[in-house]
Amino acid sequence: MPMDFRHHSPILLFSASLFFTAAFSLGINYGQIANNLPHPEAVVPLVKSIGATRVKLYDADPRVLKAFANTGVEFIVGLGNEDLARMRDPKQAQAWVKTNVQRYLPATNITSIAVGNEVLTFNDSTLSTNLLPAMESVHSALVSLNLDKQVMVTTAHNLGILEVSYPPSAGAFRRDLTQKLSCILDFHSKVGSPFLINAYPFFAYKANPKQVSLDFVLFETGSGMVDPASGLHYDNMFYAQVDAAHSAVEKLGYKNVCLQISETGWPSKGDADEFGATPENARKYNGNLMKLIADKKGTPMRPNSDLNIYVFALFNENEKPGPTSERNFGLFKPDGTPVYNLGFNTTGLISTNTSSSAGSSGGTTSSGSSPAGTGTSSNGYLSITADDAERLPSQWSLSFLCLIVSTVLAFQL
């Protein structure tokens, strides 16, 4: 039974003054597979207080879209994998767009529709076959409603779509997915929408903690690694993962397509075999990631690119299936208190004045499944996979750098 927060459980509000500047633009994933989350109206001030200007949903929850009306916060709304087949019908696609997008515009700033989530690595031929036609149908619906200039159509992939990922310059898509991805990239090129990637260095470390340097995955600067083919220097795995995806996209001839990061994060808790899932490591990963975002630096391969990063996730979600880590990616607990200290200043309290209800979306995997779940690739989130890790230098001698909240100079070295 959902918990009632109407008369208790205040939400703490935090200012982001230590991390965020006027030019800082944080994206956050707002998943809702939980039975104890505050009402979206109580979430609005929390989102704004951490400096988040962009929110990604896994559905088109009317409560959320109404609550954020007239806030200016940009939204990516999600269309579930279960809806792909019926979206091939132009009439159904238009009805969905009218109900879940048009009715909230312009008060709620919906800028993108994510059609499906991590579809290609479910290895489900029906889902994969329906993905691009559904994207095209939804885009056609937007065109017919004169909304295509303000709302883009895209889909998010995990890095299990890569067959080769090390070194980054050798990145290449799985051969069995190349044709589908080429067609999807052609769609992005024609309509001007971004190619979305979910990148999780955590899963690479979890798979090979003896081979992969923890400092390297936590953005702790040091000697790093040099791509032997390109000569480019990488001081963190996140950039290496992203550039492996860049290389794969370029190999198909779509260098003009913008690649953006729809999910990345680190869990604060995990099972016994989920090495590295601790509050301290989550604090380091997300804290250093936010410095990187504030510094507006692209990757070594694309130094001027804007990755438009969305952190996963706003809240811990207690009803997500899978290993313990899946329920512990949140920056905040359901009552709005931080899971770990990212340097936000407490500035006040508000009553939630809500009753929580279980959500129908959200997560590091589509439809709430776990990374190791049936139908996903064995290294679904990995760019630098277990095999790739064995080819990396065994010793990086990366120096430890304490998280200094007030500076972003570490990533300018």
TrEMBL record:
Transmembrane segments: none annotated. The keyword Signal applies. The keyword Secreted does not apply. Residues 353-375 are annotated as: Disordered. It catalyses: Hydrolysis of (1->3)-beta-D-glucosidic linkages in (1->3)-beta-D-glucans. Signal peptide: none annotated. GO terms for biological process: carbohydrate metabolic process. One of its GO terms (molecular function) is glucan endo-1,3-beta-D-glucosidase activity. Pfam families: Glyco_hydro_17. InterPro entries: GH, Glyco_hydro_17, Glyco_hydro_17_plant. Keywords: Glycosidase, Hydrolase, Signal. Its EC number is 3.2.1.39. PANTHER family: GLUCAN ENDO-1,3-BETA-GLUCOSIDASE BG1-RELATED-RELATED (PTHR32227). Belongs to the glycosyl hydrolase 17 family. This is glucan endo-1,3-beta-D-glucosidase. It comes from Sesamum indicum (Oriental sesame). The gene is LOC105156066.
